[in-house]
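Aim 2, interim progress: modelling of the S-adenosylmethionine-bound target.
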Amino acid sequence: MSYGSINLADNIEFLSGISNDSVNLIYIDPPFNTGAKQSMTSLKTIRDEKGDRTGFGGNRYRTERGESRSYLDTFDDYIGYLAPRLEEAHRILTADGSLFLHIDYRESHYCKIVLDQIFGRDSFMNEIIWSYDYGGRSKRKWPAKHDSIFWYAVDPKNYTFNFDAIDRIPYLAPSLVGKEKAARGKIPTDVWWQTIVPTNGKERTGYPTQKPLAILERIVKVHSNADEMVMDFFAGSGTTGVAAAKNERFFTLVDANPEAVQVAVKRLAKYSPECVGFTPDSRLA
Ligand SMILES: C[S@@+](CC[C@H](N)C(=O)[O-])C[C@H]1O[C@@H](n2cnc3c(N)ncnc32)[C@H](O)[C@@H]1O
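Predicted structure of the complex, ligand included:
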């Protein structure tokens, strides 16, 4: 059985074909308008007697550069580009649906204003801060180490929030709260500490700007129910699809970049996604 679809398309065209009131949860992580080409080259460690490093068990290894993947992240009128897509998101959400927009400090304040206009200020539920600790530290200003994830509910009085599905986190001072509470852990706040996808971790796909599965799983479990439809129309490597399928939700993924959809196909192969607008690379599936 297929849990969903992966679509190669410009999302504005794709969204125009989606019915009103048909998607329960949308998470999007659009390009952040960094003004750069986002790219990543994967690295493979290969055992080689002539390699330049000694590793586990005294074996020799060398590093080989794998495939490069990239997309352009420069916009003259970012809000002019994003706003029509946010309007479509609002149109296709169910009456109890929610949108999560993942963005960074460059455009977040402008996005908040546009979302208030489209959804209404009352529909703004949270600004979740994803805080991480990776990369260089500026000596000229406070190092920026967070992204914002805006949560808007179509109806602020009727939305999905599965409190019991929230994963608990350790208390900072467990000795102050007693054994039982310390063992259970506490509910996270709107500040989520989570490492980036580790460079050598199993989760890493090699797609630039891939987001951690733990963040997506928290959103999917708490803000949707089994068998509901979860959509990501800036899908990249398909993290949202993995979080949805693992938790028995249906997914619709859209990306305009052929490299992205191939990575998503590989990641989601075991859920037999329908591939629309492209032929999956037979070496990947
Ligand atoms: C920041 S990445 C998403 C990364 C993703 N969250 C992940 O975990 O891998 C943004 C994606 O949006 C895609 N994109 C940009 N403009 C698009 C458009 N008009 N239609 C569909 N996809 C688009 C890019 O190709 C890129 O893969």
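The chain is about 25% helix and 30% strand. Residues 4-276 form a domain with the Rossmann fold fold (CATH 3.40.50.150).
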